[in-house]
Amino acid sequence: MLKEFKDFIAKGNVMDMAVGIIIGAAFTAIVKSMVADLINPIIGLFTGGMDFTNNYAVLAGDAPEGANLEAAREAGASIFAYGSFIMAVINFLIIAFVVFMLVRYVNKVKAMAEKPEEIAPEVPTGPSELDVLLEIRDSLKKG
After folding, report:
1. Labelling 114: which of 10, 62, 68, 71 has CA 20 to 30 A away?
2. Once rounded to an integer, what is the mean pLDDT over residues 16-44?
């Protein structure tokens, strides 16, 4: 059983998946920073400075008036954090688009690598050596 487990772990698919998960975790941090530091301010310009991450509705309990999301949670209020959900959807769309572009590029590179070299069409260069020898033989027979 230990040998089977070792064989399973040593397979390329499992190792590729492990590397993918590690890179994905690092990539998630980059995307979160991109959304929080670059995209949110741009969206805020078009929405009059509104930051989606702190948008919420109080379902039950008391939250300080005008408090941000964390302050409302610390106050013990039951909140509906729709702004965080909007940001999660934006994060997902950005990650999905970037992954799509990467997969598209990798597929294009694979297709180019698998494409056989185009063979140049044969260009007639005149009679072959055999044709010349047959012509000489035929002319010697006649003469």
Report:
1. 10
2. 80
Look at strands 57-60 and 78-80 and give their pairing.
Answer: antiparallel
C-alpha 82/C-alpha 85 separation (Å) is 5
CA atoms within a 13 Å half-sphere pointing along the CA-CB vector of 86: 15
- pLDDT tens readout for residues 38-92: 877 787 788 776 667 777 777 787 777 777 777 777 877 778 788 888 878 877 8
Give the CA dihedral 33, 24, 73, 66, nearest 10 degrees: 30
Quote the distance between the C-alpha of residue 64 and its chain's center: 42
pTM: 0.51
**Would you state the pLDDT for residue 51?**
64
What is the rounded distance in angstroms from the CA atom of residue 61 to the CA atom of residue 56? 13
Asked if residues 40 and 83 have their Cβ atoms less than 8 Å apart, the reply is: no
